[in-house]
Amino acid sequence: MNIVDISNKRYTTKHYDKSKKIPAEQFKQLLTVLKNSPSSVNSQPWHFFIADNDAAKAKILPSILDFNHPRVADSSHTIVFCIKTPLDEAHLQNLLRQEEKDGRFPSAELKEGQDQGRRFFVEQNSKTAENLLCWESKQLYLALGQILFAAAAIGIDSTAIEGYDNVKMDEILGLKEKGLKSVVVATFGYHDVNDGNAHRPKSRLPNEQIFTTL
Ligand SMILES: Cc1cc2nc3c(=O)[nH]c(=O)nc-3n(C[C@H](O)[C@H](O)[C@H](O)COP(=O)(O)O)c2cc1C
Q1: pTM confidence score
Q2: CA–CA distances in Å: residue 63 to residues 41, 98, 165
Q3: Is 160 in the pocket of ligand 1 (CB under 6 A)?
């Protein structure tokens, strides 16, 4: 399938067929896509919680707004996207150690440059707590876009979900104590035969309104 076909095929699923489960191997591929998602200065300011069974989905359901309940309850897998708050010294050192382990630094200068460059961007975006939250959230939304596209590419339906109570979600998962904060949710599975959205045409503003060639 070419990329245009994939982008046309991906749509927001409103109703899932609860009886259909994503094969473990394919879900693992989606997690790899999340892991490989780009982030500014390779900051990877994230942690993902995965609900792949009824008990786990029921646990987070009270934080999901009513109209979104079926998207979570009937999904095969639900993922809660979280940012790290704060993006602390331990995380910066952890990143640098991992990059070194992964063979990213043929010289000490490169390692030092990467560390300094990352600290510069983190500092630039840490002027206020809101500023940092916003910057980290941008990285999470990139990952969200990647996984939605990847899922469609392998025939898996999905729903991005902002319609949830983040305070409640953070309480349920004990995120504050873990130095995390939820920013968005996404669900995955296979649409129900009665999912009306599956057959609606896509609606997008025309090219001339959104693209300008300079
Ligand atoms: C960040 C984000 C949050 C969204 N939140 C919800 C949601 O809470 N519930 C829902 O049914 N759809 C949600 N959507 C789906 C959008 O309404 C949908 O992507 C948009 O209308 C375009 O339709 P399409 O995805 O079918 O192409 C969300 C989409 C994004 C990208």
Answers
A1: 0.97
A2: 32, 34, 5
A3: yes
